[in-house]
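ok trying this again, last paste got cut off
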Amino acid sequence: MLHAIAAVFTVTVTAVAQVQWVQIPTPASPGPRYEHAMAYDAARGVCVLFGGVQGATRYGDTWTYDGINWTQQLVSGPSPRARHTLAYDAQRQVVVLFGGLTAAGASNETWEWNGVAWTQRTPTASPPALSGHASAPFPPLGGIVVLGSDTGGATRFWSWNGISWQDLTDASTPTTPSLWQHGLAYHAGRQQLLLHGPTTIASWDGTNWLPADRSAGGRNGGGLVYDSTRNRLVAHGGHYQTGYQNPLRETWAWDGIWADLQTPPNIGGRALFAMAFDAARGRVVAHGGIDYSIASFGDTLELVPVTLPAPYVEPAVSGFAFTNECQHIGGPFLTVTSKPVLHTAGQFAWIGETLSLGCADIGGPFTPVPVALVYGTSNQSWGGVPLPWPLAVLGRPDCLLAVEPQLTFVSTVATQFSRAIPIPNAPALVGTQHFFQLIGNSAAGPWFTSNGVGIRIGSR
């Protein structure tokens, strides 16, 4: 199949959506607001929404959404606030609220919702006051985590297990330049946390922060949730750090690398909305937000699957074998650079079309390096040897071969690798899986490897 790699050409295609956003009319609604928070309460099968702001009005109300209607829960609880977070603790079956901006300023309060009432928790130690931070479940630690910048701009990373807070902040915690209204979500299939910030995109495996694909671009004010039905994270909306007045409408999926879902333009861009994944119905739910030019939104949106006729077959892309080991040594001063991340530039793979592979942070303008794109149909074994396989034979036991090397394509790269791969228009390829990895020899001598990329070819 991939012998056609050497022929590089461009194909113009019409995007076909796998999913689309649909506005859901409901008899009742929390109404227009932004900077609120929402989480899915799996024990009770509803999305829980709290707080937010609209103009000069700051809200302290609690709402639940069952897929048909919103219901206001007439209960006392946290004071009115915005820029707070909600995350579901599956082990204890409660929704945890932390921090936010109240009339008194930034808060470090911890509250829990059990489906009936709010309870304030008062542990002996807590994170500092945070607003505009992010939180997410992290079951390996028995609860949730919060990540954000305090009022002095310092990054704070803490976990909550229902009894006490633990400070996880260390020298590897992302610090650039401050974290505000960023995305944070736990990918259960990978057991990794993804940070989708304005300048930093990285994943955390419970011990190490790992390099991540940046194809979707950094952003503030967007939504990021885990779609457990399709085993991927979904990111939507927000705005680029330099494009505050131009919120985005695009929707991306992340499974180690990013893929643009190319949803139809039936809704405009928005930021500072609330988003959650309804696991019982398999739908991403979003509410409210703002586009900075009109009053805030009060609508309810759902990301729903689109039924497409044959020959449509859904493709998939994923990344694997991420590590902080085997870093590239290159650049103009032969310094250790970031781990090269191989990606598909946000594309899926379709028969009869071209797939682009890319990888930055390789070599330098004055120090080009030789690289080999390795292709295979397996990432599990090579000649009976399990993969990934340490490249001790090249003097780099910390580097891993993650793809069965059936074909290799050698080139010389200065700063950035790219390769266009024409996929033949052969129906027999639909549904087949293929794997890629980049291996190179840096200017200073040592070998290096990228992560692996897996594709499943679709048709449209």
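PB: full thing came through this time. Residues 3-16, 331-336 have pLDDT under 50 and may be disordered.
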